[in-house]
Amino acid sequence: MRRRGFTVIEIIVVMAIIVIVFASGWLYFRQLGHSQPKLLDRLLVNQEGIRSANILIDHIRECLEVIKPEVGETTPYLVTRNALNEINVVYCQEDKSHSEDEEKIYQIVAVSTSDKSGILSDKTRNELVFSRRNMGVESEKVLIRMVRRVTFTATNPNQVKFNMVLQQGTGQFAYVSQVRLLPYGGL
After folding, report:
1. Contact between 78 and 155 (Cβ < 8 Å)
2. Are 108 and 90 in contact (CB under 8 A)?
3. What DSSP designation does 5 have?
4. Residue 34: pLDDT band by 50, 70, 90 thresholds?
5. Average pLDDT over residues 168-187
6. Which of 55, 144, 149, 168 is most deeply packed, by most CB within 10 A?
7. How far apart are CA 144 and CA 55, in angstroms?
8. Hey, how many other C-beta atoms are within 10 angstroms of the C-beta on 144?
9. What percent of the chain has a predicted confidence (pLDDT) above 70?
10. Band of the pLDDT at 130, cuts 50, 70, 90?
11. pLDDT for 132-172, tens place per residue?
12. Residue 120, CB-side half-sphere exposure with 13 Å CA sphere
């Protein structure tokens, strides 16, 4: 005799398989919802990092020659001369509005002057010391905020390598680039 329909055991097995498939799908989509904001944060940090690096690259390319650091030397600042024979200084300054007690956050500041006498280099501490009163600062501009650290290395008199780490929320973005100065300061 042929029977028509399903036994109770067959129905229970099919229902168990359906429950397992739906449960795994629910867990997958729940996890996807949690990881999407993290991915978005990382993408935003990368986008801001590339934008910041391009600002610094454009600023460096406007110069004719690297004064400090000397070839082969690495410093946390950059001193250059532009086509108008002005001295440009790019350095890190603590950003007190974003710094915490343990972790300091910096901003990259660019200073332009036509007077070279106020710029000094302290070789023992490898820091830039300059007096704004003596230097006759003509323009000071914050280029980039939320910087963890930046270093400049002169690979030759017309080429600079910089290493920059940006902090954005809990994410960090590290960027290394070698910039060749444009002939005639990009004029």
Report:
1. no
2. yes
3. S
4. low
5. 78
6. 144
7. 8
8. 23
9. 78
10. low
11. 444 555 678 888 888 888 999 999 888 999 999 988 777 78
12. 9
φ/ψ of residue 14, rounded to 5: -65, -45
Mean pLDDT of 22-44: 78
Residues in the chain: 187
- pLDDT > 50? residue 85: yes
Q: What does the alpha-carbon distance between residue 69 and residue 50 come to, in Å, rounded to a whole number?
A: 24
* Residue 83, CA distances (Å) to 24, 46, 65, 184 in order: 65, 32, 9, 6
Question: Where do the structural domains in the chain lie, given as residue ranges?
Answer: 40-186
Using the structure block, give the residue that is written with the tokens 């230097």: 135
How is residue 165 written in tokens?
């780490």
Query: Which structure tokens are listed for 82?
Result: 């532009």
**Whole-number Å distance between alpha carbons of 106 and 149:** 7
Q: Which long-range contacts (CB under 8 A, 24 or more apart) does 126-134 make?
A: 126/75, 126/76, 127/76, 127/77, 128/68, 128/75, 128/76, 128/77, 128/79, 128/89, 128/91, 130/89
The tokens for 122 are: 């302290």
